Amino acid sequence: MDELGQMPGGARDPQAQLALWARIRSEAAEAVRTEPLLGALIHAGLLHHATFAAALGYRFSLKLASGEMSEQILREIADDAHAREPALAAAAQADLEAVYARDPACHRLMQPMLFFKGYQALQAYRIGHWLWDQGRRDMAYFVQMRCSEVFGVDIHPAARMGTGVMIDHAHSIVIGETAVVGNDVSMLHSVTLGGTGKEDGDRHPKIGNGVMIGAGAKVLGNIHVGHSSRIAAGSVVLMDIPPCKTVAGVPARIVGDAGCEKPSDMMNQILGVDGTA
User: Fold this and answer.
1) Quick one: 175 and 134 in the same domain?
2) Where does the Serine acetyltransferase N-terminal domain start and stop, copy by copy (predicted)?
3) Which of 50, 193, 272, 277 has its CA 20 to 30 A from that of 81?
């Protein structure tokens, strides 16, 4: 466990993953019955695959393939990554459960896998991060480039992302090289976790567990955002934030308590008179 309380890979019950995959396949079969025109897409993306990890690998290769890198090569990379690192699928399971629990627009578990670019980009980042840790830096940079081009999500492969993360809508997400994002974090579109100036080294934010980051928020520099805090939409955060606080403004300041134990689950972005939910 690291300084943010992350458990590497977020170990999960294999039987729970099998049950999750069975439910997704059931949803997919029902979707084919109700919308036959999507039958080929749903079969190729979900029903054709025996495991959750295999479906993730297929989606990764399909979305990131280009004239520079074939779908077959990318599929081999993804399958190798999942075979050698089961924590990738465990993290993807936690992320999927997070989206289903927190996003009111998500009514079925199959939706993020097929239609939500924030979820798909995060799983692609996870393979890029695995490549980075294997010393395959150029291939990791390729994955980062394609994620930025395809999804509009630019996460440096060296950044560290916890599990149970939801990136909602996911337009214009930027997360820098030395950023660390804890477990059970939610962020909306146009969030930047960036550096300041041209200094090298550890220069990006450290986001605690259970934090909610509102749309358009910018968190800049090697600063810490405490566990279970809220960052209001459009805020620019330039200083450390204690745990369990709500901040808002440009530059951001503390406007009250977070109002709940885990703001990332509640997704409440309304500020009361005292800044609480």
Assistant:
1) no
2) 20-124
3) 193
